[in-house]
Specification:
This is ABC transporter domain-containing protein. The protein is of the alpha/beta class. It has one domain (about 20-220): P-loop containing nucleotide triphosphate hydrolases (Rossmann fold). About 35% of the residues lie in helices and about 15% in strands. The protein is built from 9 helices and 8 strands. It has a 6-stranded mixed beta sheet with strand order 4-5-6-1-7-8, with helices on both faces. A two-stranded antiparallel ribbon has the order 2-3. Helix 4 packs across helix 6 and helix 8 crosses helix 9. The radius of gyration is 18 Å and the shape is globular. The structure holds adenosine-5'-triphosphate and magnesium ion. Magnesium ion binds near residues 32 and 33.
Length: about 220
């Protein structure tokens, strides 16, 4: 909105089927995070539209939408509280049961790590989650997202292991820099300068020997 004269996305059109995992890849600045921000309605497109279940995003109640579309960022915010409190954060305390907490942690592939800690779920995360690695932080953030039973999960930079479980039955829109994390995605869109230049699953895109193929090849040889 601060630079209305420069269009970031250009005739970009994509469809995501419920329950599928869709990945966006492409060079830095190509518009991947912008797509996720538009889906969250952090701002609206200048033209064109975004629909969920056939209804324009602008017709949804914003707080309902934000409950259903849950983002997990690369640098998730954790609080100086226990792991339990971080997963339960924002939920009505009456709704929080051990079963739900552990269920969400298992889906996010972090349960085994948590119970290996001296205090288990009561272990403090430290200020800004200082006691945890980036991947562990993100998995706790994914558990926090999953406990709310989101319809659509938005992952800007995913952790592969966390993703594989979490993806079952939930629609996932994933941005990946490490291409190995999205090989199981149902469909991959390659974005360049706000346009889709290639689409397909991992194997189809490799067979094309186009940009995705080159991006993969570059990462293997790096
Ligand atoms: N707040 C903003 N104001 C103006 N321009 C912006 C703003 N945020 C992003 N842009 C521009 O929009 C374009 C797309 O940015 P976006 O964050 O969507 O890229 P990206 O594909 O997610 O890149 P990366 O891989 O580096 O995360 C960039 O050219 C950027 O300069
Ligand atoms: Mg980005």
């Amino acid at each position: 909105p601060t630079r209305p004269e420069s269009a970031i996305l250009n005739e970009l059109s994509l469809n995501i089927k419920a329950g599928k995992t869709i990945a966006l890849v492409g060079p830095s600045g190509s518009g991947k995070s912008t797509i996720i921000q538009l889906v969250q309605r952090l701002y609206d497109p200048v033209s064109g539209r975004i629909t969920v279940n056939g209804y324009d995003l602008r017709d949804y109640n914003l707080s309902y939408l934000r409950r259903k579309l849950v983002p997990v960022s690369q640098e998730p915010t954790l609080f100086d509280a226990t792991i339990w409190e971080n997963i339960a954060y924002g939920l009505d305390p009456l709704e929080v049961t051990q079963e739900r907490i552990v269920g969400a942690a298992k889906l996010a592939n972090i349960h085994d790590f948590i119970i290996s800690l001296p205090k288990g779920y009561n272990e403090p995360c430290g200020e800004f989650g200082a006691q945890l690695s980036g991947g562990q932080k993100q998995r706790i953030a994914i558990a926090r997202a999953l406990i709310r039973k989101p319809s659509i999960l938005l992952l800007d930079e995913s952790v592969q292991l966390a993703l594989e479980n979490a993806a079952k039955g939930v629609t996932c829109l994933v941005i990946a820099h490490r291409l190995s994390t999205i090989q199981n995605a149902d469909e991959i869109f390659v974005i360049v300068a706000g346009q889709i230049v290639e689409r397909g699953n991992h194997n189809q895109l490799l067979q094309r020997e186009g940009l995705y193929y080159n991006m993969c090849h570059r990462q293997i040889t790096e």
